[in-house]
Amino acid sequence: MAARRWARTGAVGTVAAAMAATAFTTPAQADSPAPRHTGHQATQRAMDELVAAGIPGITAGARDKNGSWQSTSGVGNLKTGAPRGVNDRFRIASITKTFVATVLLQMETEGRLSLDDKVERHLPGVVRGHGNDGRKITVRQLLNHTSGLFDYLGDPGYQKKYVEAEGFLKHRYDTVTPDLAVRTALSHRPNFQPGARHSYSNTNYVLSALIIEAVGGRTYEDEVRGRIIRPLGLRGTIMPGSTSDMPNPHSKAYSKLSDVAATKIYDVTRQNASQSWADGDMISTTTDLNRFFSALMRGRLLPKKQLAAMKTTVRDSEDPTTGYGLGLLTFTTSCGVKLWGHSGGWLGSLSHALTTEDGRHTLSYNLNGDWNWSAYIAEGEFCGTKAKRLTSANGSAPKR
């Protein structure tokens, strides 16, 4: 699903689909770390400092006018001490939402739907009950989180079964359907009337993917593969369906399972991906994420009208320093660089994928521990020696 904001945006969702063609094997060893690069010292320093503060390991990649850079810090396996690998695959959590929004915007360019369509038009009778009404919510409001729908991940029963330690360890391999997420959300009254304000809800993207399937007649996974993954050659990107394994190469993923004060750290590498469907199930690499966000911002995936709509933001009600468009976040660094992208946090994985507005300078990175969010790495990459050291936001991952 998706956690929000730059300091805690992640993702997980619900449901399965076809397993990607790439073979899944387990367990896997991370590949060798990259050599230090002299052009990204502040980025590397920020990574090293987060590892020194307790994160097991970090893998990062950037691309700018000087070419590509990849590096790592820390370990990918706490037992063996194996380093993180530059080509590690990892769960990107809520960064999945940008892919979903892109597909819906492409469908709009084809005349198959409008952002101003009511949810009811494509999912008749689905959003009803306890004050929820799909006849009053638009597709646009799903994508920019102004629908008012309750976030199913916030349901205490759902958290107890799938997120907190005892429940997660018992149910981590269960297959979950999107219907459960929708039913859980609709058992609660809406947080506010549609359009009244912005409030991040993973439920919005479960419904968005269901609309993709209703309009396209194919699974959401097939639409993402056919429209984005294959055209861009994202060879490290996986639509995992209901598998619990991670494709090679990958590092271990570690979590405190919603208890940031806990001293016990759990290996959560294997978990059924259907428990975080279109709100956060995808697996990718730093190289692929940089390629995707660069292509998106440079107009390779959307025409000007739809890209402009995607970049039309509403103010984040929890963090007024950031804005949220249609599956796209924006914020400005301490040195004045405006960045676009998304973050994703789920059990065992915290990630950011960022780009300048022209798509010419990109950065993606992943932490394989979920208890310490920080935008300090982005500050290092885009501000260099002028980076403002930010206080880390300690917090366990869920909210994708």
UniProtKB/TrEMBL annotation:
Residues 44-349 form the Beta-lactamase-related domain. The keyword Signal applies. InterPro entries: AmpC-like, Beta-lactam-related, Beta-lactam/transpept-like. Residues 1-30 form the signal peptide. Keywords: Signal. It comes from Streptomyces albipurpureus. Residues 61-81 are annotated as: Disordered. The keyword Signal applies. This is Beta-lactamase family protein.
